[in-house]
From TrEMBL:
GO molecular function, one term: sequence-specific DNA binding
Family: Belongs to the LysR transcriptional regulatory family.
Name the UniProt record assigns to this protein: Transcriptional regulator GcvA
Organism: Maribrevibacterium harenarium
A GO BP annotation: DNA-templated transcription
Pfam families referenced in this protein's UniProt entry, alphabetically: HTH_1, LysR_substrate
Stretches assigned to the HTH lysR-type domain: 5-62
């Protein structure tokens, strides 16, 4: 039987090949660069071939290294899948989610009872997250991102677009200054999201209105906060009706006009690209995609 190389030498080789750097491989594996170099030298001696050409700031695979790295990566992927399958076969599956705050509080939480009823054996842990997740350095399984979908290193599934319309508290509107047409909003402050200042400009321009004649109100860090400020009567916010459905049904917010601004930002379900999908991950993906279909049908 052929004597296989030690597993640690293969782990170092695969990481260094993927990163093109002993230093970055060392950071991923939580060892020193010299330890990575030592392990790869041991692997080269075991195989009797040179796997890398060393340059000043990077390493490049030799032809032998290029042919060897593919089956090594396939073998690690097979081991990951087998490990995941064993873990997923346990009676209680776990799922750790990181979710954009507005989507978490205004869309996901009101529907989580449905998921729990459908999958009572899945234990789910949810965290609020505003930025991208470093899946390799965390125990997060999946995340819901908000943006344009231009992210590297993740599998992404489109969930729903954002369609913005003006909303406000009914107590904001004065009797002597009613809001009957879009230009009437110039008498009231417009609430803005600091990182998305173009939204009000685009909505007004879409309705043939001059943005410069409208009052700029308070600025907030998220759409969830602008919606909350609108409930308090601080101004008019642009919001997706689906995300403020509870406030609209309760009457604490009213939609002023049906004209919507279709943005280039949407919600996506994402997870690490090379990660095997567990049974819990597959169940949540199937559930959330099914939940999106009625929403999109209603919006069409």
């Amino acid at each position: 039987m052929i004597r296989l190389p030690p597993l640690n030498t293969l782990r170092c080789f695969e990481a260094a090949a993927r990163h093109g750097s002993f230093n970055r491989a060392a950071q991923e594996l939580h060892v020193t660069p010299s330890a990575v170099s030592h392990q790869i030298k041991a692997l080269e001696e075991h195989l009797g071939v040179e796997l890398f050409r060393r340059a000043k700031r990077k390493v490049v695979l030799t032809p032998a290294g290029e042919s060897y790295v593919v089956p090594v990566q396939d073998a690690f992927a097979l081991l990951e899948r087998a490990t995941t399958d064993i873990q997923a076969s346990q009676q209680i599956s776990t799922l750790k989610l990181a979710v954009a705050p507005a989507f978490l509080t205004r869309w996901l939480m009101p529907r989580m009872e449905s998921f729990q009823q459908q999958y009572p054996d899945i234990e789910i842990e949810i965290a609020s997250a505003t930025g991208m997740i470093d899946f390799a350095a965390s125990d997060i399984d999946m995340a819901v991102y908000y943006g344009t979908g231009q992210w590297q290193g993740v599998e992404k599934h489109f969930l729903r677009p954002i369609r913005l319309a003006p909303v406000c508290s009914p107590k904001l509107i004065r009797r002597d200054v009613p809001i009957e047409k879009p230009e009437d909003m110039r008498f009231y402050p417009l609430l803005h999201v600091s990182k998305r200042r173009d939204e009000w400009h685009d909505w007004l321009a879409q309705n043939d209105l001059d943005p410069t004649v409208f009052r700029r109100g308070l600025m907030f860090s998220s759409g969830s906060l602008t919606a909350g400020a609108a409930v308090q009567g601080l101004g008019i916010a642009l919001a997706d009706a689906e995300l403020v459905q509870a406030e609209l049904e309760a009457g604490s917010l009213i939609k002023l006009f049906d004209t919507q601004l279709a943005t280039n930002r949407s919600f996506y379900l994402v997870y690490e690209k090379r990660r095997p999908v567990t049974a819990a991950m597959a169940a949540f993906r199937e559930w959330i995609m099914a939940q999106m279909q009625p929403d999109e049908s209603a919006a069409s």
